[in-house]
Amino acid sequence: MHVLTKKEEADMENLGPDFRFFFDLNPIPMWIHDRRTFRILKVNQKFLEIFGYSQVEILHTTLEDLFPARQVPPLLLNLNLTPQTLPMLNLWGLRHKAGHIVNVEIAGQSVGFGSCDAALVTVIVRNDQSLEKRALEARLRISEFARSHSLDDILQKTLDEAELLTESNIGFFHFMEADQRTLWLQNWSSNTLRSMCTAEGKYSHYPVEQAGIWADCVRQRKPIMYNDYQSMGRVDTLPKGHAGLTRILTAPVMRGDTIVAIVGVGNKPIPYDERDLTGINLLADLAWDIAETKKAEDELRASEANYRTVMDQASDCIYISDLDGKFIEVNRAGCELLGYERKEFLCLNIRDVIMAEPDHPLRLPELIKGKTLLSERRMRRKDGSIVLVEISAKRIDDERLLGIVRDITERKQEEERLKYHALVMSNVPSAVISTDLELHITQWNKGAERLYGWSESEVLGCLIDDICQTEFHTGQQEDAQQRLFAEKNGRVS
């Protein structure tokens, strides 16, 4: 407790009549505190009237005594506070002597207080702030927080807001398993973890039948308030190291007829009432909705990761575009085929890479109407070179087109080689005959027709021995087959 020294009393006397008039008689509540120790040095008469303290009582307090659950505004902890007034725009709670919380806005500025480095704080009471409005503001803060934080952080933020809303010092959040018989602890509030609870067991499971009276809201399927916890019995069911409880409020989160979670707060300085219950329900429902969204997002990210793995294992290029042809997804093979980085590829349009020719348009309108297309095209790589491809494309939903692209450059080269080979064979005057490994005839040119009298259609697939009356010495036929087989393997490798 702080008792003013004679020097501090002298400092106050030396402030002068103008300051005392401005401070003591001001209709706005004010206080002065030491910026390094946070001790309250002086309050004006209006502050005493509104918050119920005597001058002697208030000088025995610090900022942490005035604000619930260590909710001291950051401004008041800022040692770099300038003489310029800096208002705190959000709503804060100041503890009345009777224990309840008074909603206020505050502003602070650095002042000289004798030899002390002090801050002058003015207080604007906002009695028009209903519980519903405060809960809505808390919900907005939680929603904003949820955009860039994990599920664990969001639940802890919800419990911190629930503590502030109900003037509590403990908060916890449990999920309920689908069997409706098992709870598992998901998180505690910041204040519970920081200063009150040393119990281990986050994510641990509790059978409802073995849980203490804090789980009665599950058994009775309705919110429960116990304002004299110690007299209720079964207090020994708390885990070792758990924060001690004097009062507790727990509420089930319902979805249909199923309990999905419970939210609890505890140790309010004064008894809990129906207003506290309303506030908890408003925050608990929001927390569960956000939790469900976060879990769905996590599952979607996992699904997308699996989808990307499958896409990237494909040897053919796979792309997805919008209906205008702008690429919105591509796999690794597609990037390698055209020589682009993925981020570069996704800046392109189909028209940038698939060459449109007068007699071979892109046919996007047909795809948009739902027609599946298979076509051979030429695509332009990043370095300007051309690759021959076969594209299978279709519309996969109302807004996207799917394309599978295969490089057919080697296949087209082989087709051209075979065409040239067939042309040469057909124009050679001598008989030219080709067989497979089993010596079945696969090609038969005009010279062979003239020599043997059989047309090509009559001999294809027949054994060359049967048509040409070929006579092999012992082992010669087997040797020919082995050489043909070795030649084929050499081309493949």
Secondary-structure blueprint:
Elements: H1 6-13, H2 17-24, E1 30-34, E2 40-43, H3 45-51, H4 55-58, H5 63-66, E3 86-95, E4 101-113, E5 116-125, H6 131-146, H7 151-166, E6 170-176, E7 182-188, H8 190-196, E8 205-207, H9 216-219, E9 224-226, E10 248-255, E11 258-266, H10 274-313, E12 317-322, E13 327-330, H11 332-338, H12 342-345, H13 350-353, H14 364-368, E14 373-380, E15 386-395, E16 400-407, H15 409-427, E17 433-435, E18 441-444, H16 446-452, H17 456-459, H18 464-468, H19 476-492
How would you sum up this structure, described in words?
This protein has 19 helices and 18 strands. The chain is an alpha+beta fold and about 500 residues long. The mean pLDDT is about 80. Helices cover about 40% and strands about 25% of the residues. It folds into four domains: about 120 residues, PAS domain (Beta-Lactamase), CATH 3.30.450.20; about 170 residues, Beta-Lactamase; about 90 residues, PAS domain (Beta-Lactamase), CATH 3.30.450; about 70 residues, 2-Layer Sandwich (Beta-Lactamase), CATH 3.30.450. The strands form four sheets. A six-stranded antiparallel beta sheet has the order 8-7-6-11-10-9. A five-stranded antiparallel beta sheet has the order 2-1-5-4-3. Strands 13-12-16-15-14 form a five-stranded antiparallel beta sheet.
